[in-house]
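Hey team,

Filing this mostly as a record. A colleague (T.K.) asked me to run one chain through the structure pipeline before their review meeting, and I want the input and output archived in the tracker in case anyone asks later how it was produced. No errors, nothing strange. Just documentation.

Input sequence:
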Amino acid sequence: MAVKAACFGAAILCLSALGAAAQSGRAEVTVAASSAAVKSHLINEMMNRGYSIMSDTPNMVVFDKVADNLAAMFLFGTRFGGAPHARIVYSIAEIGGSTRVMADAALIGNAGSAFERRNDMNSGEALGEVQGILNLVASESATPVAAAAAPAPGNSAGPTTVRELRDQQDGLQNVP
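Output structure:
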């Protein structure tokens, strides 16, 4: 019984740490800024990370790059399509004076062909990485109204500067 209670408690902590992500099950953030400002910072950050813009509309931006992860290449690559592509679709909704951005991440096998295979990456480490991007964009655009990521360990207020967010994100990427 104590084990069940501990597992249930851990599940509740994980769900509360996700915060806004529980609404959609994906990485998301709401920022007190215009959609144009948020979108501009988002495009800049994704280009800095090596992504290309595949599609751009007022309410959606699609980014794509060849996956550089050896495991992803082995598991999702094909002879026909080569290495898989990492694709992130950001949906943007301006609500009053705030902007809500929600991300959908996937690995695409046979990218660019009629036989594309989509592999959902909206959980685990990929969710944390995409959420880190959104938190960084939010901090550069304006003060976030609600963010889906949990605060840094030992810091109940979470990162307060762009440098702290980048340091935290670098720490997440370098974990074995």
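Quick notes for T.K.: The CA atoms of residues 5 and 11 lie 10 Å apart. Residues 1-22, 149-158 have pLDDT under 50 and may be disordered.
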